[in-house]
């Protein structure tokens, strides 16, 4: 699938948001779960929302406020894995139209963490297809 420039930019913003969660010391599994089920993610799912263009630093602050403080300490995933996860989740939304919380229900933080090594070199469409296959077999 060929994404439009604005869609690719939002995939990149979400990837950098996930990276920044590691830089900020937020527990990675908790961050992913909190973000993907948040109203912040739901705003990014909208066709257009001003929040989409506020940048990853602002989105991290919004999510931290919404969560009443994101969990610090705990497990920190690799920054490249986190970028891939954030990017792929947003790409998945554009590919299928599914909402972030529904995508997370199919490929949660554990599945993304364990799938990274084998899937991060795949074309995003293929990685999503394989993740959806895994979800359907669970």
Oligomer: single chain
Name the beta content range. Answer: under 5%
Tell me the helix content.
over 70%
Mean pLDDT: 95
- Termini separation: 26 Å
| Radius of gyration over C-alpha positions, nearest whole angstrom | 14 Å
Number of helices: 8
| N-to-C order of helices and strands | HHHHHHHH
**Gross geometry:** globular
| Main sheet characteristics | none
Key terms:
138 residues
Question: What secondary-structure arrangement, pairings included, does this model have?
Answer:
Elements: H1 5-23, H2 28-36, H3 39-45, H4 56-67, H5 79-96, H6 100-106, H7 109-119, H8 124-137
Question: What does this entry look like structurally?
Answer:
Helices cover 70% and strands 0% of the residues. The model has no long low-confidence stretch (mean pLDDT 95). It starts with a helix and ends with a helix. It has eight helices and no strands. It is mainly α and 138 residues long. It has helices at 5-23, 28-36, 39-45, 56-67, 79-96, 100-106, 109-119, 124-137. It has one domain.
